[in-house]
Amino acid sequence: MTEIIPLEIIIIPSGEFDANDVQALNLTLRAELYESAVESAEFSTAHIFSGGTKGLEGLNWASLLVTLASSAPALLSLFERLQQWLDRNDTLLVLTAPNGTTLRLQGDLDDIDLPELVSQFQEGVQREGGVEIVVESGGKLIVDGDVIGGNQINDSN
Questions:
Q1: CA-to-CA separations, 33 to 56, 64, 101, 157, in angstroms, rounded
Q2: Helices 72-88 and 114-126, packing angle to 10 deg
Q3: Among 1, 60, 90, 131, which residue is least crowded by beta carbons within 10 Å?
Q4: Count of CB atoms within 10 A of residue 83's CB?
């Protein structure tokens, strides 16, 4: 039996967006997530898991509580959908799991190794205390401050 996990997805738009614009983004993302492997995607007006909204005071943001299977195919489907979303929307997406694992996605993610991202996220969700994963444009994958994949910069000058 596949385990079902809840995730909070926080949408933080770049630029000048009012509360109505942010809510429209939230509605659109929710509808699109149902085209992936999510079991449910419900609106959330309060921060659910720790760590996701730190530093968001004064910004317009929206939140969805999503449940899906913790299997690699389900997570891959979700991450592919979020990648497509980011291609069309100038936003930061922050995913937070109950154990504190956070995943920050922003910009052009076409070069990201999605199976590696799924693997790192699954490991983080299983780890006590979680991990922080950041995906940057150009396919750079950073887990707890360590570059795991993508364009690595050699600082040994």
A1: 23, 10, 20, 44
A2: 120
A3: 1
A4: 18
- In total, how many domains does the chain have? 1
* Domain-embedded: residue 154: no
- The gap from C-alpha 92 to its chain's centroid, in whole angstroms, comes to 8
Residue 25 within any structural domain of the chain: yes
Q: Does residue 155 sit within a domain?
A: no
Q: Which residue type occupies 108?
A: D
Q: How far apart are CA 72 and CA 122, in angstroms?
A: 8
Residue 95's Cα: distance from chain center in Å? Answer: 4
Q: What average pLDDT does the segment 107-122 reach?
A: 90
Structure tokens at 11: 């949408």
Q: For the CA atoms of 105, 48, 33, 97, what is the dihedral angle to 10 degrees?
A: 60
Q: Which of 74, 18, 60, 67 is nearest to 42 (CA)?
A: 67
Domain encompassing residue 39? 4-149
* pTM for this prediction: 0.86
Q: Are 122 and 7 in contact (CB under 8 A)?
A: no
CA distance 87 to 66: 21
Average pLDDT over residues 7-34: 90
